[in-house]
Amino acid sequence: MTTETTTAPVPVITTAKEKSGVPPILIIGVLFFIFGFVTWLNSVLIPYLKMACELNNLESYLVAGAFYISYFVMAIPSGALLKYTGFKKGMALGLLVMAVGALVFIPAATTRIYLLFLLGLFIQGTGLAILQTAANPYITVLGPPESAARRISIMGICNKVAGAIAPVVLGAVTLKGADELKVRLLTMDDVQRAAALNELSARVIMPYIIMIVVLLALALWVFRSPLPEIDTEHESEELLLANSNKHSVFQFPHLLLGVLAMFLYVGVEVMAGDTIISYGVSQGISLATARFFSTITLSCMIVGYLAGIICIPRFFSQEKALRVSALLGVVFGLLAVFTHGMASVLFIALMGLANSLMWPALWPLALAGLGRFTKIGSSLLIMGIAGGAVLPLLYGALADAYNTQHAYLIMVPAYLFIWYYAVIGHKIKSKS
């Protein structure tokens, strides 16, 4: 392998019938809003189900585990599915699968069976895997490659605005009076305790019924939308020559390193967003206050995305944005471990700022020059989202074994590898 100083461009989309650029971006923006809303509900579901189903830290973080492991299991099948359906029909199908996952929450809530909740989360993650396998490369190639991070930053704002809203909305319903309920549960007998927890579990039913209706309506809208199909199978003459000796996606080292960087990035992002409420409670902060912490984390990410839209590529490149973001992650991670109380929680929230430009930068860097391998490369990157299943579980195990604060040290080596990818890893190409 050799390292190169430049990356070959991702192929621009070709369509059977050219459309205006605005409607596709608007439609994909709505889909990214849905990604964010459904994904960041987990930050409330973790403390909510921990109480309703009487779980320890490790068990409660199976919420993130079941949701994100579906990306690993379903990413390659999603890529194969998209070759058959095309991107637009695949997106509509992904929304339908998400609606099925939301439907499973109804029997889960009425029976208070934790495995059913996890099944519903896995199915929802499966639908999102299909959606993301289609939507991310779509927005990546919907314009010049050097401004791909800017376009993905715009999508990121849609995603994170939804993510900031979701915990507040669901938390207002499911965690209302939770602090008082925790105290009362200590004095209840078994029958009273079961009744109180059943009532708590049932609170989630109506929000998920509304979600089912919205997802079904969106699936119909996307299916009937004017989204143009994109063709990643045909390459430019330059890419055709460069990839003439390529027979497998595994011949692109920069992609494989990008998948590992994606795995670690999603892991630390999910930790920052999904553990912060429970971590705040462990620092002596009430649930009534802590339920807003995920929204602060997501708001920090929105600030970072806005900076990306303004500055990339006008003032700095997506590679430089990734380098700086990774170093910020290291600094904030160490400060979170070595401070206490609200200050420590604040540094976890500031990781949202550090994480904000990683997703927009990783996609174009990892997909650069793949040509006809773009769809399978996208599937591998989606598999990397499984980091959101593994790292929070590792955090939960360390939190149970040691404490919730020192467990955050696992973030530091993750950020250091992302920094390595931004500096060196994305330049590594196979020999022609």
Automatic annotation (TrEMBL):
InterPro entries: Glc/Gal_transptr_bac (IPR005964), MFS (IPR011701), MFS_dom (IPR020846), MFS_trans_sf (IPR036259), MFS_TsgA-like (IPR050375). Keywords: Cell membrane, Membrane, Transmembrane, Transmembrane helix. The chain crosses the membrane at residues 25-49, 61-84, 90-106, 113-135, 205-223, 255-272, 292-312, 324-351, 357-373, 380-399, 405-424. GO terms for biological process: D-glucose transmembrane transport. It is found in: Cell inner membrane. It is a multi-pass membrane protein. GO terms for cellular component: plasma membrane. Residues 24-431 form the Major facilitator superfamily (MFS) profile domain. One of its GO terms (molecular function) is galactose transmembrane transporter activity. Pfam families: MFS_1. Belongs to the major facilitator superfamily. FHS transporter (TC 2.A.1.7) family. Intake of glucose and galactose. This is Glucose/galactose transporter. It comes from Mucilaginibacter yixingensis.
